[in-house]
Amino acid sequence: MTFLQTVWLVVKKDLLVEFRSREILYTTAFFAVSCVLVFSFGFVQDGRAIDGAAAGILWIAVAFAGTLALGRTFERERQNETLRALLMAPCDRPAIYVAKLAGVLLLLTAVEAILVPLIALLFGAPLLAEPLMLIALLLAGTMGFAAVGTVFAAMLVRARSRDVLLPILLYPITVPVIIAGVRGTAALLQAEPDVAAARAWLSLLVFFDVVFITLALWTFEPLMTE
Amino acid sequence: MSSNSRRRILILAMLLIALAVGPAVVSAQQQPPPKPAQDEFLPIDQLPPGETLPAARLLIAAYAVVWIGLAVYLWSIWQRLGRVEQEIADVTRRVQDAQAAERPRPAGGAGR
Amino acid sequence: MRAFPVLTLLAAAMFAYAPIMIANAPFESTMGLVQKIFYFHVPSWFAMFTGAFICGYASAVHLFKGSRNADHYALAGAEIAVVFGLLGLITGPLWARKAWGVWWEWDVKLTLALIVWLTFLAYLLLRRFGGPGSEKLAAGLGLFGAANIPFVYYSVNWWRTIHPKTTVVPTLGPGMRGAFWFCVAAFLLLTGLIMAARIRLERQRARVDDLYLSLED
To answer: In terms of residue numbers, what domain contains B92?
Structure first.
């Protein structure tokens, strides 16, 4: 079986399982929305949002929702011992990583599709002024976050205290993603969208993605085996 | 061997006690000859008046933190080493006893 | 390590002499007395980053070669990074309070140091609370954490900066330069000694585990 065939099979399996109950999708989306709501109480004064709040809130909601989604996805695998079964299958281990990454990415993109219009509405932010750049930033940033998160969530399946350890491990590593994402989005939200700055942050995100996906592919097998 | 490593750590810990003399020396200021101007850190001869007191408190606090922090850490390593070596001695003895009990003839020097 | 007692005495002597060098170093014109924290603050950071990179490299070796020795180095490196990082994070604000008027500023070096410190603190938490087999998982974190350092630096750098520039060190006058590099040497020597002691502790722990295993047989 080729690498891509394996990836496709696992992704299909995950999507099928998810579509039956849509549990993770609904709960993650709802959680993200409630995050945004909670933040609005903190960052809205006199009926108007504080400057630059929209970009920050978008990315924080993505980070929190992403952590939750990662935890839930692998918890499901752990409960049914399917991860071990997958690892015992005669296929490329990195293919399993890529498949899991793709699944998480799809999930988070779906959530972001809800978040962006919602935040644009609640905070009066011109999030759709430069749609292509924003989509690129969100994709690159979510990819970086998910790339590191998938490795950590997968390796923590075997650990104790995995629920609280995932954010503890993940947030310091994904700080560059958050900074780049927030500053890039904020640059696009200015009265005069600063596309050059956004492009600079985007290039940092892409570089981060390349380096850490490579690292993840490299280390996935040793991390998942005893 | 266990007392050897404990002694090493003890020496390391004594270093920290020797350092406790440090802050007293810092307060004995001497005036150095004037130095040429630098980019960022510009050295001067005398402290301007009204500069000394709040800064001294922070300075001493900073150095105290470093000494005490290092001392506490070294002490904790020493403690842990002591405990582990105690445990090694216990378990080695138990292994030797178990092996001696197994064989018909006692196997001297079986443990390491 | 037979050189251990000699090196320890050397480190002790260096630390005992350091305050004399620091007291003799000239004052800084704008920051005055409080700038002298610099002689211990910056070497603490040197020690922290040394620990961080040792941890990263040793983590990679442990992950790919399965070397238990490398794991000991990784743990020792992480502990060094956290201890010396904590010293730097405390002495920094004490200096900043007088020099900049605020306890904390979101500038490059401070933020980078804080994040690297948190990363290796997370490493220690994972080792402590992750349960059996967490050495390998922590190695993964150590590797990712060390690889992350340049990214954090650049992202925070583009974000903002008010720290004294790195160029301060090359332009130090002779009185300051001598004291500074002496303190760096003292700290790095101490780092090496602590690592040796810490690794020995881990090796002894591994020996106890092996002994318990042989007892069960």
So the answer is: 1-23+53-104
pLDDT tens, position by position, B79-105: 898 899 898 898 888 888 888 887 765
- Residue C200 predicted with pLDDT over 70: yes
Residue B33 lies in a domain: no
CB A92 within 8 A of CB A146: no
Domain that holds residue A175: 3-224
> Which 3 state secondary structure label does DSSP give A49?
strand
Tell me if B13 is assigned to some domain.
Answer: yes
What is the identity of the amino acid at B65?
V
In a domain, B35, yes or no: no
- How far is it, in rounded angstroms, from Cα C205 to Cα B83? 10
Going from the C-alpha of A124 to that of each of A129, A193, C40, the distances in angstroms are 12, 15, 49
Q: Is residue B95 part of a domain?
A: yes
Secondary structure element (H or E) that encloses residue A201, with its range: helix A195-224
Q: Spell out which residues of chain C touch residue B46, defining contact as CB-CB under 8 Å.
A: 27
DSSP string, chain B: -HHHHHHHHHHHHHHHHHHTTHHHHHTS--PPPP----SS--EESSPPTT-HHHHHHHHHHHHHHHHHHHHHHHHHHHHHHHHHHHHHHHHHHHHHHHHHHHSSS--TT---
User: Which ipTM did the prediction report?
Assistant: 0.82
Pairwise CA distance, residues A1 & B38, whole Å:
66
Total domain count for chain A?
A: 1
Instruction: State the nearest Cα–Cα gap between A47 and chain C, in angstroms.
Output: 28
% of chain A beyond a pLDDT of 70: 98
Q: Is A74 on the interface with C (CB under 8 A)?
A: no
C146 touches chain A (CB under 8 A): no
The percentage of chain C sitting over the pLDDT mark of 70, rounded to a whole number, equals: 88
Average pLDDT over residues A70-93: 84
The count of domains in chain B is 1
CA distances from B107 to B95, B99, B101, B103, B104 (A): 12, 7, 9, 7, 9
How far apart, in whole angstroms, are the C-alpha atoms of residue C50 and residue C42?
A: 12
Q: Does C212 touch chain A (CB under 8 A)?
A: no
What is the predicted pLDDT for the residue at A158?
Answer: 83
In one letter, which amino acid is A184?
G
CA–CA separation, C145 vs A172, rounded Å?
8
Phi-psi category of residue B28: left, alpha or beta, with phi > 0 → left and psi -120 to 50 → alpha: beta
Q: A108: closest CA among A25, A167, A51?
A: A25
